[in-house]
Design goal:
About 45% of the residues lie in helices and about 15% in strands. The protein contains 11 helices and 9 strands. Bound molecules: D-glutamic acid. D-glutamic acid (DGL) binds next to helix 3.
């Protein structure tokens, strides 16, 4: 039997020893919530286990070697829980896997960068910006994946190391965050058709990206990612789907941050 957190009246469960899920989803931190939101829209009846590796956030500043080790550990952790499918919610981990190869996992993995490329292809854009962590941009995975799928595409990748710490600190609104997003966007070409969120933390800053970029289309790869998860699992019926939230960091701070973000961004 699952047990809930009785200390707080927020709608999630946290018992690391007894909870599992059909879908395993992980990120370095709170960015995973933006993928979870899309998964919930497509698959409201499926149990989800969301793991936030906040003991190691931000991933974007780590070496490729460290990131590969963390990716292996996170896949193994979800495999141990017996999940049926792993829905990646961390671009940085996908970038490392694209560069060095996917580590073994028993459960099939749905790759977020492939989903991003599919989203761009479907929308028909040809002049694309990607904002992502320093590690993701350094790996060059977005450019390679997009160019492989879409001949003749123009891709500019811009690192945004300041943004993940702001989101993890709960600073998704306010002048400091708006200025940080504007600074990142100032490095993008002026004739951009669309910007891809190459990090799952960034959709939480959508209002600032809109403010900085005006009419540029903003692409959240999580929409296609969730659709691919639904295609993989097929129709599921049932009643009491649960979402289990786990962190390798401070549990109380994690719960508070999730609750705060849920209040700020309805639909999370
Ligand atoms: N949200 C993650 C991503 O999509 C990682 C951010 C970080 O920890 O630097 O890349």
């Amino acid at each position: 039997m699952r047990s809930g957190n009785t200390r707080r009246s927020i709608p999630f469960r946290t018992n690391p020893l007894s909870d599992s899920g059909v879908i395993g989803l992980f990120d370095s931190g709170l960015g995973g919530l933006t993928v979870l939101r899309r998964v919930r829209e497509r698959l409201p009846l499926v149990d989800v286990l969301f793991f936030a590796d906040q003991a190691h956030v931000p991933y974007g500043d780590r070496t490729h070697e460290e990131l590969l080790r963390l990716l292996r550990a996170n896949l193994a952790r979800l495999d141990e829980r017996g999940v049926e499918v792993i829905v990646m919610a961390c671009n940085t981990s996908c970038a490392i896997a694209e560069r060095y190869g996917w580590p073994y996992s028993r459960a099939p993995v749905i790759d977020l960068i492939e989903s991003a490329a599919l989203a761009v292809e479907r929308a028909g854009f040809r002049r694309i910006g990607v904002v992502a962590t320093a590690a993701t941009v350094g790996a060059g995975s977005y450019g390679r994946t997009l160019r492989k799928r879409i001949a003749g595409i123009d891709v500019v990748e811009v690192p945004a190391p300041a943004l993940v710490p702001l989101v993890e600190a709960g600073m998704v609104t306010g002048a400091q965050t708006r200025a940080a997003v504007a600074e990142v966007c100032s490095h993008l070409p002026l004739d951009l058709e669309a910007l891809v969120y190459g990090c799952t933390h960034y959709p939480l800053l959508e209002e600032h990206f809109h403010a900085a970029l005006g009419g540029v289309a903003l692409i959240d790869p999580a929409v296609v990612q969730a659709q691919r998860a639904a295609d993989t699992l097929g129709d599921r019926t049932g009643g009491d789907a649960t979402t289990t939230y786990l962190t390798s960091g401070d549990e109380g701070a994690f719960h508070d941050a999730v609750a705060r973000l849920m209040a700020l961004a309805p639909g999370l």
